Amino acid sequence: MLKDFKWQPQGQASFGGALLGLYQRLDQCFVRLAQGCQAREFKFPSHLPAVTLEKLDYFNSFPHLITMPVTLERSEENLENFRGNRALHDGAISLTRIAPIRHVLTPAACYHFYQFFDGSSLEGPLYLTTAATCNRCEDYYEPLQRQWNFNMREIVCIGAADTVKSFLAEHEEKVSALAKKYGIAITWQDATDPFFKPAQNPKHLAQRLDPVKKEMIFGDGLAIGSVNFHRNYFGEAFHITANGEAAYSGCVAFGLERWMHAVIKTFGEYPKDWPDFA
Amino acid sequence: MLKDFKWQPQGQASFGGALLGLYQRLDQCFVRLAQGCQAREFKFPSHLPAVTLEKLDYFNSFPHLITMPVTLERSEENLENFRGNRALHDGAISLTRIAPIRHVLTPAACYHFYQFFDGSSLEGPLYLTTAATCNRCEDYYEPLQRQWNFNMREIVCIGAADTVKSFLAEHEEKVSALAKKYGIAITWQDATDPFFKPAQNPKHLAQRLDPVKKEMIFGDGLAIGSVNFHRNYFGEAFHITANGEAAYSGCVAFGLERWMHAVIKTFGEYPKDWPDFA
Questions:
Q1: What pLDDT is attached to residue A138?
Q2: What is the pTM of this model?
Q3: Closest partner residue to A49 among B8, B59, B64, by Cβ?
Q4: Given a cut of 90, is residue A2 above it in pLDDT?
Q5: For testing the chain B interface, which of A43, A75, A200 should be mutated: the one with the most B CBs within 10 Å?
Q6: Same domain, yes or no, for B158 and B232?
Q7: Is B227 found in the same domain as B91?
Q8: Of residues B78 and A10, more confidently modeled
Q9: Which domain covers residue B86, as residue numbers?
Q10: What is the pLDDT averaged over residues A251-266?
């Protein structure tokens, strides 16, 4: 029974005290990794425009994951009807007319960067980092391990193919060293993105044939992060060029709550037994 | 023209570099204020259960402000229909069947605390702090000043009436001193919450007759924060007791992007001219 922790069955965690301290120290640890390549940090909004995700074929590939921020159509009549409806039935909101839905709650932190640098001609590689609250709808949820909303720290490189490949190889080693230093057992496994109906999606087949995603698998089988090579997919979709060609990109992603889980599973629930991650 | 800043017309800001540094230093400044009363920090999920807001009559008072996280009903047939629909028409998503909506995106950071301490009998006052991304739907948006999603740092006290009143009086003075120290011109004004059809809402009338909200108004008329006395409203709604009676509560709230605006408006757009907030 964790102290200062509360779980809502719909996939959401609240925490304070030593758990928040752990969360913050883990994130700082990954920020220091990002500082190793002079990554520039950004803060992004909660939502991504639907048109941005459409460029990535997201609605076709991951319809089961999306959460959309929906507001009521703002006419006085409609808002009055909403109130008159009495808002809740069995804990669920009864909608009246809604405004057009033009956004999706951020499903992965790094998408914001490709949008931010949309149309850029890069003179040298970009090294970037951000942490974002991500939302992914799932069939079931488990505290710290599988949450509707959770936090992801990413370190991203956008540039020429070789630069991105070196960045990813170097960070795979650095993450292995970091995990070893703090006693978190991880192994690396080739993986694919969680496509809807994967067998029918040519992208899934392409990822199977030529893996571009490696997951950091914690002892009990949970992916607590990943290293991803996007080739020039985002460069093409967002017209970002390096040396006159579509830029390549790659990212290293850390699931912050999943790292908390790995620490607690490895060292127990007493904060005095946890590594300091200093 | 701010550097490392991008604005999406739908009320959302992205920033890095010196602006992110300013954001972080401002927040740290308010965290130090919170440490002055040994406030315990918490991190909360993005969403609040609708049943929690229903207890506060939120859907009746603020239907115009809410943003709901909506997901698709997860049957294979429904997800296939969504894909077949082609997701976007004029940049807007075409829905198929949606799952019951049981949440609202956090509209104010402190609500999470009343839910977290639901049913508690307090032995002494609680001093708490959290920062949260809040969502409020508005008629129009302006960078840093009025955003669909923005960040709010709050310091909260829950306890006996006198304790809460002293907390609020003390923090009003501390905030005035802090603003003066850094050269941000603020005045205090009685205010009311932004009710839908205020003239018809008895809560609005009650707030007019006996003000419970004081806003920190920055020079050009923008509220960059507020001090709020909730009486025992949350204590009653969430069965939190102090000395056997419904607990009183109050909070001091800071709009982080609005404080950034106040700094830029006061000192200009060059970071070298900004206070260090150390």
A1: 95
A2: 0.96
A3: B8
A4: no
A5: A43
A6: yes
A7: no
A8: B78
A9: 67-105
A10: 98
> How far apart, in whole angstroms, are the C-alpha atoms of residue B8 and residue A48?
10
Residue A37's SS3 state is: coil
User: What is the ipTM, given to two decimal places?
Assistant: 0.95
Mean pLDDT of A241-269: 97
State pLDDT tens for residues B197-240.
888 888 887 777 777 899 999 987 999 999 999 999 999 999 99
pLDDT in tens, A158-209: 999 999 999 999 999 999 999 999 999 999 999 888 888 888 888 887 777 7
Assess if residue B278 is contained within a domain: no
CA distance A68 to chain B (A): 5
Contact B63 A74 (CB under 8 A): no
- Name the CA radius of gyration of chain A, rounded: 20
Among B5, B27, B76, B93, pick the best mutation site for testing chain A contact (most A Cβ within 10 A): B93
Distance, in Å, from the CA atom of A202 to the CA atom of A20, rounded to the nearest integer, reads 41
- b/e map of A110-138 (b: 16 or more CB within 10 Å)? bbbbbbbbeebebeebbbbbbbbbbbbbe
Phi/psi at A5 (5° precision):
-130, 135
Low-confidence ranges of chain B (pLDDT < 70): 1
Residue A9's pLDDT is what? 81
In chain B, whose CA is at the least distance from the CA of A87? B59
Chain A: residue whose CA lies nearest to B84: A60
Q: How far is A249 from chain B (nearest CA, A)?
A: 19
Q: Residue A1 has what pLDDT?
A: 64
* CATH number (domain holding residue A138): 3.30.930.10
Q: In what order do the strands lie in the sheet with A241-242?
A: A121-122, A241-242, A245-246
Cα–Cα distance between B154 and B45 in angstroms, integer?
Answer: 15
Q: Do A43 and B15 touch (CB under 8 A)?
A: yes
Q: Considering its fold, how many domains does chain A have in total?
A: 1
A108 within 8 A of A213, measured Cβ to Cβ: no
Contact (CB<8Å) A83/B103: no
**End-of-domain residue from the set B88, B105, B122:** B105
Residue A93 lies in a domain: no
Q: Which amino acid is at B120?
A: S
Q: pLDDT value at position B1?
A: 64
Nearest-CA residue of chain B relative to A57?
A: B87
**E strands, chain B, where?**
5-8, 12-16, 40-43, 47-49, 67-71, 88-89, 92-93, 103-105, 121-122, 126-135, 149-159, 186-191, 213-218, 223-229, 241-242, 245-246, 248-255
Q: Are B24 and B157 found together in one domain? A: yes
